Amino acid sequence: MVFVAVHTGAGFYQSGKRKKFLEVCSQACETAIKGWKNNSTAIDGVVEAIAYLEDQMITNAGFGSNLNSAGYVECDASLMDGRDLLFGSVGAVQSIQNPIKVARLILDNQRLKPPLGLIAPNFLAGEGAKKFAVSHGLEDYELISGKSLNIFNKYKRQLEECETASIDDKHKKYDTVGAVCIDDNGCLACGVSSGGLILKKEGRIGQASILGSGCWSEGNVAVTTSGIGEYLIRTSFARKTVENLNGKNDDTQNIVEKLVQVFNDNFFESPLMKNVPREDHLAGILGLSTDTDNIEMFWGHSTKSILFS
């Protein structure tokens, strides 16, 4: 049985927008399933679902993403195949409609044997990532929407005038979108895509690009994360979660108890987080766990909410 789950980020959602985000999540899953072919794999399902989310202006991935401090969009994305643990990642890439498709190209390219003993990269960033994407047939695409530009102009002006102001909840876009999938062979995959934080520094790369932070698929578990990227990177949150849920702690615990323990031991109380204000301990996770008879979807968050389907 094929199963796909997606999220649009962990954070605060205005009540008037929750329905639209949930509809987009549902449509992303439907798109992945409708595009399924006899030879499709879990990686295909993840890419189809995330590409759909990237195309929706309401999400903070691909078109309509947050603008950085210089006024343009830089996107991060990554993908992991649980079959062979291959990982493909792109960071701070500009003007590519679907960054997740670049991550897919990078992942697939590792299965080819380069000439002259060269090593195929698993992570490309910036202009090099864009050139790689274009050389493989992906087109240059304008990612700035009118709405995201207006929001940028408002807060950029306040920043320049040194006003004491915070970004309104209604203008916040959540850090990532993500997907997890299991195919009819029981193989798992996961992925993540993000436009990053509004007014982020040029060249900033978040957890959506970093191995073990934005997504991880190994053994019987696959996850995708959201939250404050710097701290998800610091704690390798995705990988630590999968390691624990795969049974490296008390096997008498159920998955909810294990997930709570992961948040406590590897995030809230991690030595790596001791200098981080408690109010910034913000993370969310969506995942799948499977055995021979069951598929279990799970989620957790320390933010006000996380929306998924």
From TrEMBL:
One of its GO terms (biological process) is protein maturation. The active site is at 176 (nucleophile). InterPro entries: Ntn_hydrolases_N, Peptidase_T2, Taspase1. Gene3D superfamilies: (Glycosyl)asparaginase. One of its GO terms (cellular component) is cytoplasm. The record marks 175-176 as: Cleavage. CDD domains: Taspase1_like. It holds the Pfam family Asparaginase_2. One of its GO terms (molecular function) is threonine-type endopeptidase activity. Belongs to the Ntn-hydrolase family. This is Threonine aspartase 1-like protein. It comes from Dermatophagoides farinae. The lineage of its organism: Eukaryota, Metazoa, Ecdysozoa, Arthropoda, Chelicerata.
